[in-house]
């Protein structure tokens, strides 16, 4: 396992990777990761993630290609995270809509729980999920970070905001 902290317009991000791929992006040192593995392979995944996040924040990337370590995904939570990856750049869905997409229309609360435990923020785009009643909803990186990510994807963020 390898870890790296990088600066971003939404604060310092902690990247975690294994030999299998990227296993975590978050704001806290306790984000999910898997112990062990080949350090050199893990570092290559971190290099790729740092490059792609830099391009994303600069407005030059709308899809990520870094390999993800999905071993921690299981059950309904895994289904939700898999479905979340199909939500296109620049669009949003509600928790209820995402529950419908998984085939469990009454599971909006469970979808919310899956979002709260998403180990790979930004790349697995939980920021694209909003409450049906309006507003940005909660986000591990804070409301300001979520709003900036949504504005970045809609093309309404200023260059000054992402240059921080």
From TrEMBL:
Gene3D superfamilies (alphabetical): Methylated DNA-protein cysteine methyltransferase domain, Winged helix-like DNA-binding domain superfamily/Winged helix DNA-binding domain
UniProt keyword Transmembrane helix present: no
One Gene Ontology MF term: methylated-DNA-[protein]-cysteine S-methyltransferase activity
BP term (GO), one: methylation
Substrates-to-products reaction catalysed: a 6-O-methyl-2'-deoxyguanosine in DNA + L-cysteinyl-[protein] = S-methyl-L-cysteinyl-[protein] + a 2'-deoxyguanosine in DNA; a 4-O-methyl-thymidine in DNA + L-cysteinyl-[protein] = a thymidine in DNA + S-methyl-L-cysteinyl-[protein]
Pfam assignment, any one: Methyltransf_1N
Enzyme class, spelled out: transferase
Record flagged with keyword Repeat: no
Sorted UniProt keywords: DNA damage, DNA repair, Methyltransferase, Transferase
Alphabetical list of NCBIfam families matching this protein: ogt
Record's protein name: methylated-DNA--[protein]-cysteine S-methyltransferase
Organism, as annotated: freshwater metagenome
Taxon lineage: unclassified sequences, metagenomes, ecological metagenomes
